[in-house]
Design the sequence.
């Protein structure tokens, strides 16, 4: 797969996430030891790292699910640690989570699954507006025909797409994808990579994509960062990061890459 062409709409004057000196430990175990991160408006940032390096912890801190021990974590202009729980709920609505375990409700149709977040968070929306929005997000993920199907009738890749549609329906500014291609075959993975780029273009979202999948990293990342030993050791385009003469990075590459 060819490397991604960097999105020309990235606005480097606007940081939607700004993190400085982030530290997080669990008892004696220091997971994040001073992480700095910028996510620019319109950018897809890939965070790579081996298992247990703290990628999920980072996402949880960004979304206020975990507290940082030290450092500044600013999301859409708000300092996360200073928010009340109500303010945090409001901020979370601007963040779309596509987590590995964000499963669909099996007893509901695709349409009902998509209506669910609207019923909770957009109570005043008319039926017509809802239906229009459902059309828009289903079209975006290429599954308009699945409207009345049950999740059990869909493939793993299609369920993943509907999960992303359900996240998009609240029109988030930021998308957080945790291992978006995990458990998918290579062809379906490539389709999900294309979808991540399509979401970026169509909805002008800024995204963090956490993955071990280097094919995914190369296909979707405008910028790639490598989390190693509690710090971001490298960042740049995919090619720049893997051109680094660092044994640990080369080992990661050689072990993972499927070309
Ligand atoms: N709530 C918690 N309490 C104690 N330790 C935790 C907690 N959450 C995470 N950890 C530890 O922090 C480390 C980083 O975990 P994290 O889930 O962020 O890894 P990861 O990089 O996302 O790994 P993977 O790719 O396997 O998902 C792990 O050693 C984990 O055991």
Sequence:
């Amino acid at each position: 797969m060819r490397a991604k062409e960097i999105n020309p709409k990235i606005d480097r004057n606007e940081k939607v996430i700004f993190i400085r000196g982030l530290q997080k430990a669990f008892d004696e175990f220091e997971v994040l030891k001073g992480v700095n991160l910028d996510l620019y408006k319109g950018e897809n940032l890939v965070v790579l790292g081996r298992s247990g390096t703290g990628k999920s912890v980072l996402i949880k801190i960004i979304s206020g699910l975990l507290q940082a021990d030290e450092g500044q974590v600013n999301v859409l202009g708000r300092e996360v640690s200073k928010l009340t729980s109500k303010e945090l709920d409001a901020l979370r609505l601007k963040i779309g989570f596509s987590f590995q375990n964000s499963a669909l409700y099996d007893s509901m149709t695709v349409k009902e699954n998509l209506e669910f977040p609207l019923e909770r968070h957009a109570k005043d929306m008319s039926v017509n507006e809802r239906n229009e929005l459902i059309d828009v997000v289903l079209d975006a993920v290429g599954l308009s025909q699945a409207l009345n199907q049950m999740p059990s009738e869909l493939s793993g890749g299609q369920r993943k797409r509907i999960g992303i549609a359900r996240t998009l329906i609240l029109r988030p500014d930021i998308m957080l994808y945790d291992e978006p291609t995990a458990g998918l075959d290579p062809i379906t993975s490539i389709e999900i990579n294309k979808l991540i780029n399509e979401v970026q273009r169509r909805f002008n979202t800024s995204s963090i994509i956490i993955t071990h999948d280097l094919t995914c990293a190369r296909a979707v990342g405008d910028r790639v960062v490598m989390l190693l030993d509690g710090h971001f050791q490298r960042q740049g385009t995919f090619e720049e990061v893997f051109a680094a003469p660092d044994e640990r990075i080369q080992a990661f590459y050689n072990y993972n890459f499927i070309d």
